[in-house]
Each structure stands twice: as C-alpha cells, then as structure tokens.
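User: Round two. Same drill as before: sequence, then structure, for each protein.

Assistant: Same drill it is. First protein:
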Amino acid sequence: MVGLYPQRLMTKDAKYRFLLKLEQMAEELYKHGDSISHDEAWERHRSFLWGFADAGKTIQLVGSEDIQRVIDKAHEQVYGENRVARIERLSPIGDGSEEPDWDAFDAPTFERKSTSRD
C-alpha cells in the first residue's frame, strides 16, 4: 500500500489527523476549566495534551506554530475570545502593586521548549 500513496501525502494526512485530535483535546480541556479555575483531573488532561503536542514536535510531524494555531482556535471556540484578550480581561485591576498570579500565565511546555529547539 505504501507504494500507492506518496510519502508527502501520507505525512500530510497524519499531520491533519494529529492537529484535529489536538484541537478536540484542547476544546475538551477548555470546556472543563482554565488555568485559574480547575481540578486535578483538568491538570492531568492538560499534562496529557502537552505531552501529545510535544510528541508531535519530537517526531517532526508538526511545529510550534501549528500547535499554537490549534490551541488558539480551540480557545476561541470555547470561550468566544482569543487567549490574549481573555488574559487581559481577567487580569486584576489595580495600581500594579499587588502580586500577579503567575500560574495563570504559565506557558505550555511545547512553547517553552520551542525556543531551544526551533
């Protein structure tokens, strides 16, 4: 069967299926909480999603930009606004003297590692 399908076409199909699965997983994650309001099950789901995304990068099926585009799309689907707008909307209002909640802004593993690999 491999001879019937060019490698490029098979890779493209695998990439599409990978990103579709990643988007479904991200939407499911966002439907059950966010980085501020969540439970232990949400934490496990997020860790699994990050590992899945990192695996896609490790086998060079997808890049950081592909992953971020899918995450952003899922976020907008569930919350109706992009990530940056939501972060700004949820940021505490004040004179800037209060300590920020840094956990709310933690970057996913694949984003932190992308600067050292890309």
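Second protein:
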Amino acid sequence: MKKLLVILLFAFVFVGCKDKDDDVDADLGMNAVGNYTMTSLGKGGVNLDLPFQGLSGTIKSTRVNATTAFMIIETNDNGTIENMGEGEINLSKSGEKIILKENGTEIGDIEGNTLTLNIADDDGINIKIQAKK
C-alpha cells in the first residue's frame, strides 16, 4: 500500500509541475499588446531617429486572439496625425522573437520591448520602422 501511495504522490507531483511560462508564451497576442513609440523611421534610404523636428510616431497593438494582433501605425507631424496603416497581424514564435506576418508575408518582429517593421508603401518604396514599448 505504501508503494502505491508513493507512486501516486510522484505521479501527482510530475503532472502538477507544468511550466506556467508555456501558457504565457503560447498567447503571443497578449505578449504583443502595447503602445510602441517610434525610435527610427527609414524610407527610400533616408533614416531618421525619432522624434525629429516635430515628427514622431506610434504603433498601437491590441490582442485579437492568441496568435493575432490588430496594429495601427500613426505618425504625428507637428500635430498632424496620419494613419500609415492598420490591420490584423498573424503572430508566431521563433526563438525569443515574435514574428509578424500579414497575408502570409513576414513584415517584422518583436524582440523584448522592440518592434521592427519592414513594409512597403503604396508606391513599393521600403519603409523600416523601429519602436519601443
């Protein structure tokens, strides 16, 4: 009888010791949530550290579900707010990074508190944005 109790106790301990971080990591939508302040903006080979002469920007990310976020990218040019884009972004994990994909195409990542986007404008000109939470 003692052996059975010992075996049951060990089984209970091993089953009950699930790593709680797995649940947090699995909800990438929650990890991506936040307001990110742009620290640099590059377009067509010109890179600016932000804020720069009244130009700043934000990326607002909200959770849709565990693998999807809704992001809004806005710039503020001396009080004039411009929406650069918004939409649902699919999230996946690669090492310590959260990979951001739109329509199956990788557009950036989040590593720690830094969000990086590599996107193209309507004319096909590459835009690189870095922002911190």
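The radius of gyration is 21 Å.

User: Perfect.
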